[in-house]
């Protein structure tokens, strides 16, 4: 199930395939944590491949390729046996690390004790499951630095998750396009103010870049930062009026899961810096008053993006406001081409023994 060379039996490692289904050798969000309860399991699709998530009774989470090593049946149709799953077809049992622990039909056969199913490293943060998707040259997970708003105990972050029928790139590009807020979201409760004309600049950081207005700050959707810290995420903030309760600016951390070439999982954490009674007040206000408004804004994005043709980015006329989107496309396209080229390179020939 891991991305492989073009001449093997896995997915063809072309740049187009990687660009369409998501970059490898990094972490991606998969689904919210509550989708997999203790003792439960769930089939998911991510980066164009089918996976099985299952959780032990103690909360330990595992992620396996949804493919039995015996005949290729779906492990997600099988039985949860606590620390392993059993294929429904012939009962083959697979542990959380992908090792076949038992073949009931032929005990002691050569499948037992072998790691024959791909198992992905997983982490949980802010109510979401992240997984590392490598290729055959990079099976070990890269370093992961989680977004500060999801790890700072002084910040209250609330996850909102949705699934959209759009390519994952469209979701990321939407986040790197601050100006759409002034038009698409103009009637929302926080984005009604500010100029409808602006100039933007790109400002480099040690973890990505800012795309920001040069002549407006603290009014609307004025800046966004792309962060590449082992997982790709976007940070932005919107000033909030006193009527929204205690806390500073309202922040958003956004991540996109490439489900496949046409579908995405959208993760938005809404956060504010609040502690003590202010945290309780903010959460109450959010759940009772503000959350519905935020879902309305997300719905505006979904409707707009789902209505776009899947090849919308192939026939455009861009202008200065699109610098952040252009930069993002170049970054991802270059990374996809580099990953595909590395996998397509000939493997080094084996060196003959000396004196042979």
TrEMBL record:
Domain Rieske: 27-131
GO molecular function: dioxygenase activity
Superkingdom, natural source: Bacteria
Entries under InterPro entries matching the protein: Cholesterol_7-desaturase, Rieske_2Fe-2S, Rieske_2Fe-2S_sf, VanA_C_cat
Record's keyword terms, sorted: 2Fe-2S, Dioxygenase, Iron, Iron-sulfur, Metal-binding, Oxidoreductase
The keyword NADP appears for this protein: no
Keyword Nucleotide-binding appears in the UniProt entry: no
A Pfam family: VanA_C
Descriptive protein name: Aromatic ring-hydroxylating dioxygenase subunit alpha
Record organism: Streptomyces olivaceiscleroticus
